[in-house]
Amino acid sequence: MGKDRHNTMQVDNADPVLPIDRRWLKRTFLGCLILVLGSVSCRPDAGSTDVSPTTEETNAPAATRTLPPTRTPAPSLTPTLSPIPACPEPQGHLEQGEYTSSLLREQVPYLIYLPPCYPDESRRYPVLYLLHGFPFDETHWYDLGFTAWVDRAIATDLLPGILMVMPRVPEPLFTSSDGGPGSYEAEFIDDLLPAIEQNYPVDSRPQARALAGVSRGGVWALEIAFRHPDVFDSVMALSPALNVNYARPAYDPLLLAGDDRRLPSAIFLSAGKGEPSFRQATEKLVSLLEQQGIPHTYITSQGGHDREGWILVFDDMLDFLADTWQN
């Protein structure tokens, strides 16, 4: 694909069960008894009640009823010779949510992707957090079509069922803070992360959490993960805007990578040949990681700093995530 590698809710209801006419059962039983005694046909007579639904009954609207929220399809009442798939749903679902920002004193929205046949009460899900670029919002990754890529990755067993959290990075924290107390780093770690883990069955181990971002969101992903490898063992940054990042030394990913600190064990970086300044800054980080002997994956695409350029590396990104979580 032109890349160089460097190292909502629908409930399926069962058909209604129609009541059986007891008079018909009685007549049929008597008729069959006569058959045994006198070889008389045991077919229901013409006056028996037909319990098969008529066309009118079949098309009539079902009675309104309240169902508990569920994404588990109703069991089939028809026997089948083929194995029933573990999850017949072809795609996941998006829900909207919000959490309370202790810094801004307001509610901050997010989108969350719930995988096919969610929830499975027997498991806890790995979770991927996706930070948008500037000047976008929580819909950015969805608008890029990333959720459809994840649907395919789950359907082909490349990925297990995962949750994906796409938060809005609120201003002024997004563009006017660089890390530490009072920044988006604090907002993410102290407010967003606990809200998700209190409300969804996610696996809270560092190796089951991944953080990704694009452009300015890519800088935040690197800064947060580099400073919190005990929270995120995997980080992915697409076209990180390191070339226009003016962070203080304690929060600059380019300096964090070179100060002998422990970093996440899985680091994915990408940049396009059509975005030279972004690529040069990314390759500076790659060089620092190489000097420190820190494992990482770097992908150079033919794209630019735009939708088409980022989509070019989605396959590599998901392959990287799959390998990381399998290991």
List the helices and strands and how they pair.
Layout: E1 3-5, H1 22-38, H2 55-59, E2 93-101, E3 106-114, E4 127-131, H3 140-143, H4 146-155, E5 163-167, H5 173-176, H6 184-199, E6 209-214, H7 216-227, E7 234-238, H8 253-256, E8 266-272, H9 276-292, E9 297-301, H10 307-311, H11 314-326
Parallel strand pairs: 4-5, 4-6, 6-7, 7-8, 8-9
Antiparallel strand pairs: 1-9, 2-3, 3-5
Can you walk through the features of this model?
It contains 11 helices and 9 strands. The chain has 2 domains: 22-58, no CATH class; 92-326, Alpha/Beta hydrolase fold, catalytic domain (Rossmann fold, 3-Layer(aba) Sandwich), CATH 3.40.50.1820. The longest helix has 17 residues, at 22-38. The chain has a 9-stranded mixed sheet with strand order 1-9-8-7-6-4-5-3-2, sandwiched between helices. Helices cover 33% and strands 17% of the residues. The relative contact order is 0.12. Residues 4-84 have low confidence and may be disordered. It starts with a strand and ends with a helix. It is an alpha/beta fold and 327 residues long.
